[in-house]
Amino acid sequence: MVNETHQLRCTGCARVIEQQALRGNFRCEACGDLYEVEYPGWSAGRNEERSQATRPNPNALRWLWRERRASTAMEDQSGVWRFREMLPIVKSDASIVSLREGNTPLYPLRRAARSTGVERLFAKHQGMNPTGSFKDTGMTTALSVASEMGFSWVACASTGNTSAAMAAYAARAGMRSLVLIPEGKIAWGKLAQSLDYGALTLQVKTDFDGCFRVLSEVVERAPVYLLNSVNPYRLEGQKTPAMEIAEQMEWEVPDHVIVPGGNLANSSALGKGFLEMKRLGLTTRVPKISVVQAEGANPLYCSMVKTGGKTLEPVAANTRASAIRIGNPASWKKAVRVIQETGGWVEQASEAEIALAKAEIGAEGIGCEPASAVTLAGLKKLVRQGRIAREESVVLVLTGHTLKDSEYTIQYHRGKLLGEDEAAGMEAEIEATRRNTIELEAAADNVLRELERASR
């Protein structure tokens, strides 16, 4: 496979530039849209004759990637850089900054399969990454590029997971990191990570979108490298779970992949990965990519309902699923394109539906952060609507670890998370999943009585 120099193409006006021409906010000077990385000759398939000449042997690549799993080299132990032929964005392997991210499990969801009626249901658990979220897969690629370019400072606006990942990878690279978070709107488990990894952490009196606006001005005025998902190199790492899913399913991709919808870069990244694999002959088809948002932070859902994704109106985001509490997603155009190109859908889930789905995933023994649970909540609706058939295979992307927001879980099982109006009509389902602690006097008989009661 020819390891060609990559280029960047604007997703709006199709303007092509080299890496050196990128502005600090990663926006196109001509139209203001975002860029994406492409590899001339094979990724986009625009020159078919040249593309055929430079395409790899798919069987050879599959063999190589599997063989690397036995290697002790850092870049081979990474579930991102193990697939580095698919992301030639650094000049040297010595530039790679890694925490051995990726290689996350694909779990069968047996209980949820029975309850939804979907026979082949799986969870791709990106919460099993080093800092506990899918952000690590994109942070290793974007921060490696920043390091190779000679930056000393990196920065992000964050609802939690991005800041944790960026701070960890910056510390690993010996770089400094700046985090802007919305005051009072971040799970403490996530904030603790950025503090522990040494980030300069600023709580700004605004929401996530306000933090991002401020940071966009900062990176234009100071030599600071922006690591939010507008950075096209983030998406190159975030596309690699698509390759892992294909490999874990013996290169037979699922019928559907369902992704939580926040800033919407993850869905577009996964779609990019699946589409590139098909173009290169690694797979024969692409799954339908669907996105699920929280009802209180649903600008993409509203856009698809009202205009078919042609325009998007920002909303004042309000949901307990803090990782997707974003009202003005930067990558919405990329997400719309992938959803439409793969034939997927956009759904939304209420706070009660999210909380119930999170408890059901927890009952599988794997758990997830609240934002991840929108995938199961959305799946239930898509099955009822007839958009997903029971005999089809479905992969839910779980983006964060259950310990990212332990307070949410505790409040749910104590019965203090949802208001009466929020839980209305779902009380029985919710009560059946709650597992609050029980206070007892210290006697074996008391324990045995509770054990007998639980066994009925």
Automatic annotation (TrEMBL):
<dbReference type="InterPro" id="IPR004450">
    <property type="entry name" value="Thr_synthase-like"/>
</dbReference>
<comment type="similarity">
    <text>Belongs to the threonine synthase family.</text>
</comment>
<dbReference type="InterPro" id="IPR001926">
    <property type="entry name" value="TrpB-like_PALP"/>
</dbReference>
<dbReference type="Pfam" id="PF00291">
    <property type="entry name" value="PALP"/>
</dbReference>
<dbReference type="InterPro" id="IPR001763">
    <property type="entry name" value="Rhodanese-like_dom"/>
</dbReference>
<feature type="domain" description="Rhodanese">
    <location>
        <begin position="156"/>
        <end position="197"/>
    </location>
</feature>
<keyword id="KW-0663">Pyridoxal phosphate</keyword>
<dbReference type="InterPro" id="IPR036052">
    <property type="entry name" value="TrpB-like_PALP_sf"/>
</dbReference>
<protein>
    <recommendedName>
        <fullName>Threonine synthase</fullName>
        <ecNumber>4.2.3.1</ecNumber>
    </recommendedName>
</protein>
<dbReference type="GO" id="GO:0004795">
    <property type="term" value="F:threonine synthase activity"/>
</dbReference>
<feature type="modified residue" description="N6-(pyridoxal phosphate)lysine">
    <location>
        <position position="135"/>
    </location>
</feature>
<dbReference type="GO" id="GO:0009088">
    <property type="term" value="P:threonine biosynthetic process"/>
</dbReference>
<keyword id="KW-0456">Lyase</keyword>
<dbReference type="InterPro" id="IPR050214">
    <property type="entry name" value="Cys_Synth/Cystath_Beta-Synth"/>
</dbReference>
